[in-house]
């Protein structure tokens, strides 16, 4: 019986000590020495370099060359699709004005999942 009480007391002591140790936070979790490898310590000891701010208030000024290339290609494709659509609208009805043809094409292009025909 005495062994059971001693074993239970020992178990409770170890369990409570484990809980206390697990809940104690490290001194400074953001310090470079808190990193787990030499590489991480090196990476956290030097500040990250940032891209310089652009002088232009336009959002497109911050675009990368790839983003500019893609958006320029999309604009060119949209412009060509509009030209083709307007030509088709005017071919259907020669009395259709340029503005009416553009409006018809814009409404066709705004429909989800449809391309100008």
Notable characteristics:
single chain; 4 helices; 117 residues; mainly alpha; elongated; 61% helix
Structural features, described:
By secondary structure, the chain is an all-alpha fold. Helix content is 61%, strand content 0%. The protein has helices at residues 2-23, 38-45, 65-92, 98-110. It is elongated. The mean pLDDT is 78.
Number of helices: 4
Gyration radius from CA atoms, angstroms: 34 Å
Q: Tell me how many strands there are.
A: 0
Identify low-pLDDT runs.
none
Shape: elongated
Element-by-element helix/strand order: HHHH
How much β-strand is present in the residues?
Answer: under 5%
Largest sheet: none
The amount of helix comes to 55-70%
Cα end-to-end separation: 92 Å
Structural class: mainly alpha
Q: What would the average pLDDT be, to the nearest integer?
A: 78
Helix and strand arrangement:
Elements: H1 2-23, H2 38-45, H3 65-92, H4 98-110
């Amino acid at each position: 019986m005495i062994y059971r009480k001693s074993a239970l007391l020992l178990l409770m002591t170890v369990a409570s000590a484990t809980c206390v140790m697990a809940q104690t936070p490290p001194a400074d979790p953001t310090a470079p020495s808190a990193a787990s490898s030499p590489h991480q310590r090196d990476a956290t000891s030097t500040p990250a370099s940032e891209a310089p701010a652009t002088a232009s208030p336009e959002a497109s000024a911050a675009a990368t060359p790839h983003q500019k290339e893609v958006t320029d290609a999309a604009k060119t494709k949209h412009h060509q699709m509009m030209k083709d659509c307007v030509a088709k609208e005017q071919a259907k009805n020669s009395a259709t004005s340029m503005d009416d043809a553009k409006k018809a094409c814009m409404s066709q292009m705004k429909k989800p999942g449809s391309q100008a025909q």
